[in-house]
Amino acid sequence: TFAASPIEEGVGFVHAAGLFEPVATSDKRQKPWLQKGLEFCEWAKDDPDWGLEPRRVLFMSDDSELVRQEWMTALPSYRPANEDELVGRRRHGAWFDTFVIEPGIAITALRRELKALGVRGRPASVPSVKRAADHAAREKADFFVLALGLGLASLPDIEEVADRNAGLSAGLGLTVRMPIEAVGIDHVIMDADDLGYLIPQRTTVVCGGTNVLAAFDDPAVVENQPELAEELEAEVRRKVSALWPRSADVSGIVRLGARPLRHEVLTAYTDKFSIPGIVLGGAGGSGWTFSIGVADDSCAFLADSLGKEGTTHALVSDVGSDLPDDQVDGQAA
Asked: What's the rounded Cα separation, in Å, for the pair 222 and 202?
């Protein structure tokens, strides 16, 4: 694997609330991909290294259709919220069961599994899809997987692979992370209309609700502006205190940063380069939810392309100056 920075410094770790639900995307594959994610959670939940917690979710909106989405109603645990549960909140609501993963804990299990698979990391970056494919071929890989975050749209040949899905929008999001004991909540609350939420992980409650929509290279996204952080924190606190009054005076760690936003998950499979490849780009908030389903689809494509089960691969993540032309030693990604 090649990466410009350690995985725990990425957006998916630093800013993730880790809730397994696909409300952030309208991708038509959300229902089967969510189920794959929940199956993984059932398998891994008893291993403390994964940082998983079963959680009930109260999802609310004044739009009745939003609380009856197909992926929701397909869950055995789904039930409409009653009037007493919604008083002073929204007109409609629903309950369902899912899981929350705490990335800062899960990194232990991820490193363990990568080590067991013999995956080694090296620091590097990639300027184009073609260069990634050529480099993987020189490494004698059978295929390559290009897993990109906010740098997706800066690849000059991305449209050759991803077509209309190549473009990437971004947002500036703020969360306040509070100690779970101080907040005293054991279920998730989400207000789809006000974009407010409280998501209790194992040790932390992630409170959020603000996204500033902008291009991936917009100064509002690129520059960490302290004055904007104060404004967004006040807005987040207003939203979550209305949902759970006990959170109003709880201090927490404020995190402000860019995050990807898209309606569909980019899964572009290509045989246009020197070896078969896959280009992946997430849908904001659904990276953890869809990871297992995306992996299954990717494996099916590669097995078909190779006519066999692949034995080696190169994973390239993030975007920077260039890939090395020869062997590079470094720290694990």
From this structure: 30
